Every structure is written in structure tokens, then in C-alpha cells.
Automatic annotation (TrEMBL), chain A:
Transmembrane regions listed in the UniProt entry: none
GO MF annotation: an example: ATP hydrolysis activity
SUPFAM superfamilies the UniProt entry points to: P-loop containing nucleoside triphosphate hydrolases (SSF52540)
GO cellular component terms listed in the entry, alphabetical order: plasma membrane
Pfam families: ABC_tran
Magnesium as UniProt keyword: no
Name of the protein this chain belongs to: Macrolide export ATP-binding/permease protein MacB
Taxonomy of the source species: Bacteria, Candidatus Nomuraibacteriota
Highest taxon of the lineage: Bacteria
Keywords: ATP-binding, Nucleotide-binding, Transport
Entries under SMART domains matching the protein: AAA (SM00382)
UniProtKB/TrEMBL annotation, chain B:
Descriptive protein name: Response regulatory domain-containing protein
InterPro entries xrefs: Bact_response_regulator (IPR050595), CheY-like_superfamily (IPR011006), Sig_transdc_resp-reg_receiver (IPR001789)
One GO process term, biological-process aspect: phosphorelay signal transduction system
Keywords, comma-separated and alphabetical: Phosphoprotein
Residue ranges constituting the Response regulatory domain according to the UniProt record: 7-139
Cited PANTHER family: RESPONSE REGULATORY DOMAIN-CONTAINING PROTEIN (PTHR44591:SF3), STRESS RESPONSE REGULATOR PROTEIN 1 (PTHR44591)
Species annotation: Candidatus Nomurabacteria bacterium GW2011_GWB1_44_12
Cross-referenced Gene3D superfamilies: 3.40.50.2300
Transmembrane listed as a keyword: no
Length: 433, 142
């Protein structure tokens, strides 16, 4: 086993220790991040995730009260102020939510600045900075000032700056907070590239669950505690196998087209009644098997319900027909379509799921915490994709929070599950009698 | 056959340069392959060089540094040159590769260092941490 790049042992951190205003911000944190890993610290604001990254980034390090912050086996807490200063320059690149670009320097000089701390002369600095800007397609803005750039552009500059001294570790602190969905998606792509192509280790701090899609290890934090570690890549793989298995075993008599139609129908037809979805599913299956062509399909979707159609707006009908086309032409799988939907900046999957959540919970009087919401969304998504059964879905919702369930009361769970099954199957299931 | 770690010695009177070197080795995981020591004076360097068990394979050294000559302290390029002369003039140490890592870029310094047997003459402001890593790795293949 090689030494992990980051290893925290028994970290405790207090603000105002010993005073009445004392806050125990981090409680006995233990974790490891391997070299070349992509980890996310996930949790609501105030959960301690930013404090934690500041410790790893060498910023709050001197104030840690207990424990060890081992970077490639060496404890940051044992370093002198000067050593820490050098570590901050070449060990870690931080991408801040507010970008933190210096307004009085040009884009080029902002990126070149960290190299100045290492005594690199100005010509070499600018040459290197230009190379970095080129990587993010920002060279034409080199002589501009940060205030002249859009949020997305400023962030690309900020990523370039974080790479200036070639640090092995990149910390992105809520990197998507100030971006629209398209730029947020791009930022995630950049982080993924830095991880996969450069082999840099990434730590992303976030409270948005959809931004976790590329992270290979997710650390869930709450009230200063590390409450859960998850490795979704393994989970995704398992899910994929499981879902293939389920599809195959649940519906052995059904054709693949029919299966795909079934699994996609709800996704594409959110908010419609069971009957409408059933009808849509039938048309979609016909289209997928080549029984009908695209214009006919659009026509069906577009016609009013009472005339035998689905009653969609023309635009929506065309968009759905396009998706069906992609499936037929490119032989896309259900998983591919879900992946696309997840990346779709217009209506990404996470938005669908969160809309679904508010609908399912509209009669629920309590308030869910962020962690509960994540679990809830996961369960809805898994149920959607038919990865879990209605039974499993109810279990997850009922399971206590300490067991990583949602912790809802049995009555509430019953109502929610019935509601969800109604739309998924198009009929009222009498599962509880 | 297990390869022995290559020994590298950095001589520089500037603490930040020494820290930068040791940080590069530590953070980029070069510690597994190389053993780096850093010292601030040529006098300290010879403690490592003269002892066969600590004798470095590669030396990175500044040129203009404080040193003691005939009992008097002075700061000049002579610090680096006399180090080179002594290493290259002794059969036991002449195979050590010496890389000059200097803030000065005067042509006469460069010429003299090379004629005294230096491997390379690197200018500090021209070399990013990643360049240093590359140079160190390039010695593995030659």
C-alpha cells in the first residue's frame, strides 16, 4: 500500500476554545484520500467541511487542537511557519467560490502570481501562465482585468491559477456556487480532467448533491462529524449490474425496447397521469422497435389525449422524439440516457428528482435536513431506475438516520410510497392491505 | 535487485530554496526514490561528502554563498567554484554530478562552472518545480 496523499487522524478543532462561545467545529475526524483520488466533502453549511479543507490546505493548520494532518506521510502540524508557507505555494492549489482574483492585476498576472513567490522571473512566469490560460481557452483574455470577465471565465482563470506551481493536490471550495448550470457543468468537467488526465488529487467541497457525480469517494459531514464515507463508483457498478439483472429477471417476457420504454417513460413524462404515461410508453416502445417512424411518433405525442394521442406541446414532442431517435440510431442504453439527463443543463436529473421530492413531500409537515434530503433523493432515483423494489424504497425511507436511512415515520412512508408507485405503474397498488 | 535510493544534496544559503526543494521531493513523492539532504554552507556539505555512507550521487548547489577562505568570511562565487574544484580534484568524489543552481546568470560564471566540471548550470528564476523534477528524473536514465 502506498502512502495516502492525505490522511487525517483524530482531528479536533475548536473555535474560541475555553470561552463561553466555544464551538467544537470538527470532532475526531479520521479519513484517507489516496494519491490521484477524487474526494468530495459533502454536507450542509456549517458542517465543518470548509474548516476541514483549510486544515488540509495549510491555512488553519496551526490552530488545530488535536490530531495529525498527514500529507504524503508528513504531519503539517509539525511544520514551521515558513515550511507551511512553501507548502501552500507548491503543495496545494485552491479554487475559491468567490474566485479571489486580484482586481488590479490582469488575468495573465493573476495566474502568474503564485510563481513569483517561488522567485521565478517574470518572463518565465508569463510564459507558464499563458500555457495554463491556453489550456482553458482563455488566452484572448490574458490582458483583461477580472472585472471584465463573466463568472464562468473568472472561474477558469481561478482554476488556471490554482495550477500555477503544479501542485499535486487541488481543493475546490464550493466551486459551482456562483455559476449557471452550463458553467457549473464545465467546471466539473475541468476538475474531472485534472484528476484523470493530470493525475492530480481533487478534494471538492460542496453542498449540492448533483455535483458529486464524478467524485470517487464522498465524505458526508454533519455538525463537525464525519458521518459516512461512500464510494459511489463501486456503488454505480454494482447498481448497473443489479439493474441489468433486475430488468432481466423482472420482465423476462418483455422485449428490450419495451423495457427501455417503460424505464424511460416516467422520466420523460414527469407530471403526467398514469394513463398518459402508459400511452406514451406504448408509442415509445413502437418507435424504439421501428414499428412507427419519427413523424408518426411526434404526431401521436402531439395529438390531444381524447383523440388517442398524448397531448404534448409540439416542442416537447419533438424533443422527446429526438431522444428516442438517439436511442434507435446510436444504440444508446438506458444508462446512457440517464447520464445525458444528468448532464443536461436545461433540466438535469437532479432537478427532476428534486421536483419529484417536493411533490412527494407536499403533505409532509416536518422538515428534512440536508442529509435526509440526499438520502431521499437517492432512494427516489434508485426507485425510478428500478434499481430497488418498492419494498426497498420504503425500507430506506423508514430506516433511522444513524443507519443512513431517511428516518421517516411508517405512516408518512406509506403515503409517499403509494404516491410514487401510482405514477410509476399507472395504477393504485394495494400493497399495504 | 533492490535499487538503492539515490542520494541528493542541496547546498544553498537561502532557507526558502532549501524548503522548496524538500517540499518538491516530499509532495511529489520523490522521497521513495531519492534521499534528499539540504545544507546552508559548503562546510556543512563536506560533512556529507567526506563520509562514504552519506556521500551524494548528485549535488545541487548555489554559486554565490558565504564561505570561509583563509580564516576570513566572504560571500562570492568562489564558494561554488572551490566546492567544484575540491570535488572534481579528488578521485573519491569526482564522479559526483554537480548541478549549479544559481540566481546569477553571468556568462563568465557559467563558463567557469562548466570548465570546472559542472554537469549543468541552471538559473533559479528560470526553473519551475516541475522542471527540477524532470531534471532529477533525467539523471536516472544516464
Amino acid at each position: 500500500m502506498s502512502t495516502p496523499l492525505v490522511k487525517l487522524e483524530g482531528i479536533n478543532f475548536y473555535y474560541n476554545r475555553g470561552k463561553p462561545s466555544e464551538v467544537h467545529a470538527l470532532k475526531d475526524i479520521n479519513l484517507e484520500i489516496e494519491r490521484g483520488g477524487y474526494a468530495a466533502f459533502f454536507g450542509p453549511s456549517g458542517c465543518g467541511k470548509t474548516t476541514l479543507t483549510y486544515l488540509i490546505g495549510g491555512i488553519e493548520t496551526e490552530n488545530a487542537d488535536e490530531g495529525h494532518i498527514l500529507i504524503n506521510g508528513r504531519d503539517l502540524r509539525g511544520l514551521s511557519k515558513k515550511e507551511l508557507a512553501v507548502y501552500r505555494q507548491i503543495g496545494v492549489g485552491i479554487i475559491f467560490q468567490q474566485f479571489n482574483l486580484l482586481p488590479s492585476l490582469t488575468v495573465l498576472d493573476n495566474v502568474a502570481l503564485p510563481m513569483a513567490f517561488l522567485g521565478i522571473n517574470v518572463d518565465r512566469r508569463r510564459k507558464e501562465a499563458m500555457k495554463l490560460l491556453d489550456r482553458f481557452a482563455m488566452t484572448k483574455y490574458a490582458e483583461r482585468f477580472p472585472s471584465e470577465l463573466s463568472g464562468g471565465q473568472q472561474q477558469r482563470v481561478s482554476i488556471a491559477r490554482a495550477l500555477a506551481n503544479n501542485p499535486p493536490l487541488i481543493i475546490a471550495d464550493e466551486p459551482l456556487g456562483n455559476l449557471d448550470s452550463e458553467n457549473a457543468n464545465r467546471a466539473l468537467e475541468f476538475l474531472k480532467e485534472l484528476n484523470e488526465k493530470d493525475g492530480r488529487t481533487i478534494i471538492m467541497v460542496t453542498h449540492e448533491s448533483w455535483s458529486l457525480r464524478d467524485a470517487r469517494t464522498i465524505f458526508y459531514l454533519k455538525d463537525g462529524e464525519l458521518i459516512k464515507k461512500e464510494q459511489p463508483e463501486k456503488k454505480k457498478e454494482a447498481q448497473k449490474k443489479l439493474s441489468e439483472h433486475l430488468y432481466h429477471n423482472l420482465f423476462p417476457e418483455v422485449t428490450p425496447e419495451r423495457l427501455m420504454a417503460r424505464s424511460l417513460s416516467y422520466m420523460l413524462m414527469r407530471g403526467f397521469s398514469g394513463d398518459e404515461i402508459k400511452r406514451f410508453e406504448m408509442f415509445l416502445a413502437k418507435r424504439l422497435s421501428g414499428e412507427i417512424d419519427t413523424p408518426t411518433f411526434i404526431d401521436f405525442l402531439d395529438s390531444p389525449y381524447k383523440e388517442g394521442g398524448v397531448g404534448l406541446w409540439k416542442q416537447r414532442a419533438t424533443a422527446i422524439a429526438k431522444t428516442a431517435e438517439d436511442i434507435v440510431e446510436k444504440r444508446k442504453t438506458v444508462e446512457d440516457v440517464y447520464t445525458d439527463l444528468q448532464k443536461d443543463p436545461e433540466t438535469p436529473l437532479y432537478e427532476e428528482v428534486s421536483k419529484m421530492r417536493s411533490w412527494l413531500l407536499e403533505d409532509y409537515k416536518g422538515i428534512l435536513s440536508d442529509i435526509q434530503i440526499v438520502r431521499f433523493d437517492e432512494a427516489v432515483e434508485d426507485r425510478f431506475r428500478n434499481i430497488i423494489s418498492p419494498e426497498n424504497f420504503r425500507q430506506v425511507l423508514e430506516l433511522s438516520r444513524s443507519d443512513f436511512g431517511v428516518g421517516l415515520a411508517p405512516g408518512t412512508v406509506r403515503t409517499i410510497s403509494e404516491k410514487l408507485e401510482t405514477i410509476l405503474t399507472g395504477k393504485n397498488l394495494q400493497v399495504f392491505h | 535487485m533492490e535499487a538503492q535510493k539515490k542520494k541528493i544534496l542541496l547546498i544553498d544559503d537561502n532557507e526558502i530554496v532549501r524548503l522548496m526543494f524538500s517540499n518538491v521531493f516530499w509532495l511529489h513523492g520523490l522521497d521513495d526514490k531519492y534521499e534528499l539532504n539540504t545544507v546552508g554552507t559548503t562546510d556543512e556539505a563536506f560533512v556529507f561528502i567526506d563520509n562514504t555512507s552519506t556521500r551524494p550521487d548528485i549535488i545541487f548547489t548555489g554559486l554565490v554563498m558565504p564561505f570561509t577562505k583563509d580564516g576570513k568570511k566572504e560571500t562570492s562565487a568562489e564558494a561554488g567554484f572551490s566546492l567544484l574544484r575540491r570535488i572534481k580534484g579528488d578521485q573519491a568524489t569526482q564522479s559526483i554530478r554537480v548541478v549549479i543552481f544559481s540566481g546569477y546568470n553571468e556568462e563568465e560564471y557559467r563558463a567557469q562552472a562548466m570548465s570546472l566540471g559542472a554537469e549543468m548550470y541552471l538559473q533559479k528564476g528560470e526553473n519551475m518545480p516541475q522542471d527540477l523534477i524532470q531534471i532529477i528524473r533525467s539523471f536516472d536514465n544516464s
